[in-house]
Specification:
Length: 278
């Protein structure tokens, strides 16, 4: 059945340097040093902002190694703990995802993780059977028009939201990421914090409209967009110079988040999926 409309607000819980590709292959200890306690210290103020609203957190697994208290804190506040890969980097080869899943099996089992979000919302079809084998019930790793739910074997794909301006696309094969073909195909990927960074009011209005139409928008934010890291965005300046398109990810969106929570009801994606499966 189609669940009642709600905002599916998701947090891709990753370190402040994750949008840049410069750190992907550093030794994990170097990334830990670079994080400098940010991901540990941001969690309490973020959880506080949600109050009674329930959302899904997709955690990068190496953060759980660095700060083992993270998943329990999220669960104790009533939210869902999902998986944003053990290390945040492009994982487009099935073998790489398989390895990443193997490295994360212990904490995923311990916290009963059922939801997957690929880094950069960029994945391939071969990942779905792997997810199924590893106990995932759903993934949110494509972009597609709100309300699209795709059955990939026994895994449901619940994509990050787009607004189709030129008619609804008919095929939803991975990858379906935020790139020029998607945008030139007429889809406005308002689920991305890139767009809420640039077009906050427009995104808010689209969410309002979609909910009124009975749909459940899937949008995501990052911790560094809710709690700005110290010396921000100066500490990210080199990355911004190398890739100015990262700029919208450095904007603080806590007042956007506040507006969303004040106006719309939310649920975890896991709750939505279990209703959809009934
Ligand atoms: Zn991410």
């Amino acid at each position: 059945m189609t669940p009642s409309p709600r905002l599916l607000l998701t947090i891709d819980y990753e370190s402040w340097f994750a949008p840049s590709r410069r750190y992907d292959f550093l030794a994990p200890e170097k990334r830990h040093t670079l994080d400098d306690g940010f991901s540990r210290d941001a969690i309490d103020p973020i959880l506080e902002k949600f109050g009674d609203a329930k959302v899904s957190f997709y955690l990068v697994g190496e953060l759980v190694e660095w700060y083992p208290e993270l998943p329990q804190k999220i669960m104790d506040a009533g939210h869902e703990v999902g998986f944003h890969c053990q290390v945040h980097r492009p994982l487009n080869l099935v073998e790489d995802v398989e390895l990443d899943l193997r490295h994360s099996v212990a904490w995923r089992k311990k916290y009963n993780v059922h939801g997957f979000r690929a880094p950069m919302i960029n994945t391939v079809e071969g990942v779905y059977p792997l997810l199924e084998k590893n106990g995932f019930t759903y993934s949110s790793s494509l972009y597609a028009p709100t309300g699209t739910v795709i059955k990939k074997g026994n895994v449901l794909e619940i994509p990050a939201s787009t607004l189709p301006l030129l008619g609804k696309p008919s095929s939803f094969h991975a990858p379906r990421r935020m790139d020029l073909p998607l945008v030139f195909g007429g889809e406005f990927p308002y689920g991305s914090s890139f767009m809420s960074g640039l077009f906050r009011k427009t995104v808010f209005k689209i969410i309002e409209k979609e909910l009124k139409a009975g749909l459940s928008p899937v949008i995501f934010l990052h911790p560094y967009e809710i709690v700005s890291p110290a010396n921000w965005p100066a500490r990210f300046a080199r990355d911004l110079l190398a890739n100015p398109l990262l700029y919208p990810f450095t904007l603080n969106k806590s007042s956007f988040l506040h507006d969303l929570l004040r106006n719309f009801s939310t649920s975890t994606v896991e709750a939505y999926v279990s209703e959809a499966n009934q």
